[in-house]
Design a protein that fits this description.
Shape: globular
Structural class: mainly beta
Order of helices and strands: EEEEEEEEEEEEEEEE
Number of strands: 16
Low-confidence stretches: 1-45, 208-231
Radius of gyration: 16 Å
Number of domains: 1
Largest sheet: 8 strands, mixed
Mean pLDDT: 75
């Protein structure tokens, strides 16, 4: 299947400890956020889906995957949350989705309890160096009201999936997609690394991060993805 997922950077924790994943568009190793609008009023780059979400991996035999938005909570680099960068009040933001590629695969996922995100739906498989991963997609269902600079999204998702590991180190890639004014932005990160891979020609290969005092919002869910030990 096509590249539908992007992996995030996460903490270097190998076992059942929670690890943090940076979803910020920039390629900076950890806890970076994508740029907001440039001071000239012209966006420095197309908008992207950025922020922090918590991912937890199972132990060496059996356990569970866990995905948490943790709105209102903080980690060592800032706050959990999701947002779209470089937007205006006239922006049209659509097709916001996150795809998770897992190996080994969970037996099932718990249903969504989110006010804004769908269930994690199985959408096929994707081959990575570690082997064939099963791919799961969650889509954003709430109406998005764009704002100047940064548009915050609801990030109250919680998912768990039981899995048997049998001594194999789990593998996770995370893809993020958003379309702003007809332009799709998409990139991938691998859990446990800071490797950033654009998934189309619209998405910049790298970008500078924006100082926290220049962001349009400072709400708890302005940042995306992290866990007990961000990396």
């Amino acid at each position: 299947m096509s590249d539908i997922l992007r992996a995030e950077k996460q903490e270097p924790s190998r076992r059942a400890v929670a690890s943090v994943v940076a979803w910020a568009l920039p390629t900076i190793a950890v806890a970076v956020s994508a740029p907001a609008r440039a001071s000239s009023g012209v966006p420095a780059q197309p908008a992207g889906l950025n922020g922090w979400i918590l991912f937890k991996m199972p132990g060496d035999s059996t356990g569970a995957y866990r995905v948490e938005g943790r709105p209102g909570e903080t980690h060592q680099y800032g706050s959990y949350g999701l947002w779209v960068t470089n937007t205006t009040r006239r922006s049209v933001i659509t097709d916001t989705r996150i795809i998770l590629h897992y190996l080994p695969v969970p037996s099932s996922w718990s249903p969504s309890t989110s006010s804004a995100w769908s269930d994690l739906n199985q959408i096929g498989t994707h081959d990575f160096p570690e082997g064939r991963h099963e791919s799961y997609e969650m889509t954003y269902l709430s109406t998005i009201v764009p704002t100047e600079g940064v548009t915050n999204l609801v990030s109250d998702m919680v998912f768990t999936g039981d899995v048997r590991v049998d001594g194999t180190e789990p593998s996770l890639y995370v893809d993020r997609y958003v379309t702003v004014d007809g332009v799709e932005l998409a990139f991938r990160r691998k859990y446990g690394t800071n490797v950033y891979t654009p998934l189309n020609g619209n998405t910049p290969p790298s970008t500078p991060n924006t100082p926290r005092n220049r962001r349009a919002f400072t709400a708890p869910d302005e940042e995306l993805e992290s866990d007990a030990t961000p990396a």
